[in-house]
Amino acid sequence: MKQPARINVAKVLSGVLNPLLLPLFVFGYCAHVLESDVRVKLIVISIGVFFFSILPLLILLIVKRRHKLSSIDIPIREDRIRPFLYGILSMLTGSAMFIIVGLQNAEVYQALALISVLNAIMAAVITTRWKISIHSISITSAAVIIYFMSGGSPLMWPQFYGTPIYLVIAFAILIGLVMWSRVVLKHHTPAQVILGTIFGIVFTTLQLLIYFPVRDFENFV
To answer: Would 220 be classed as within a structural domain?
Structure first.
């Protein structure tokens, strides 16, 4: 039986904007902003992609095979805890690697990496009781980080009213599409994607404000 077009569209969106693909864009954009040496950019992207995308994906595939899960989306809440823990260990290793390889901006990349780690830890705790949307958390967290890095000066929050409107609109559309796709595919309820979105925005912003405080609030607004 042929699936409705909206189901196929939702599957594509859910796959393209998968949490395991977003580190490529986040670390790639951050390296583009902070680094001038192509070799350093490739090192940053390689560490980010391996420890935040490839290794967690391999862990998911192994867990899926051993526990005979229906999908790497892991629709059953209780089955998500083990992959969460292994994924967190992978990301912690990646965070340490930024320091180990001796990058000039290692502490910046480590701070950005720890945002993913802490978000994952908090999401894992919530998941023990309630199935919050990891897709929503991930896309909003990535959007907030890229927004932060889009300021006129590196590692300084952009002026709120000076932010390019196309950037805000693009983020809003992408986040909305992810939320829609997860609900259409019946992986989450509207409440789960809405709370995931709020979680991603609030906790990522709070962590960025801790790591990179607003230096001049008057210019910030």
So the answer is: no
Long-range residue pairs from 87-93, CB within 8 A, at least 24 positions apart, any chain: 87/56, 87/59, 87/60, 87/120, 88/117, 88/120, 88/121, 88/124, 90/51, 90/52, 90/55, 90/56, 90/59, 91/51, 91/52, 91/56, 91/116, 91/117, 91/120, 92/117, 93/51
Q: Which long-range contacts (CB under 8 A, 24 or more apart) does 89-93 make?
A: 90/51, 90/52, 90/55, 90/56, 90/59, 91/51, 91/52, 91/56, 91/116, 91/117, 91/120, 92/117, 93/51
Number of domains, the chain = 1
Q: Would you say residue 173 lies in a domain?
A: yes
Q: Residue 220's pLDDT is what?
A: 40
Going by pLDDT thresholds of 50, 70 and 90, the confidence category of residue 126 is very high
136 domain-assigned: yes
The amino acid present at 50, given as its one-letter code, is: F
Could you tell me if residue 221 is inside a domain?
no
Task: Determine contact, residues 101/47, Cβ cutoff 8 Å.
Answer: yes
Query: How many angstroms separate the CA atoms of 61 and 68, rounded?
Result: 10
- In contact, 93 and 64? CB cutoff 8 Å: no
Task: State the DSSP H helix or E strand holding residue 141, giving kind and residue range, or none if neither.
Answer: helix 134-149
pTM of the model: 0.86
Give 56-75 as a DSSP string. Answer: HHHHHHHHHHHTT-S-TT--
Cα–Cα dist 132/91, whole Å: 20
Locate 173 and state its tokens: 């559309």
- Give me the amino acid identity at 162: G
C-beta separation of 59 from 74 below 8 A: no
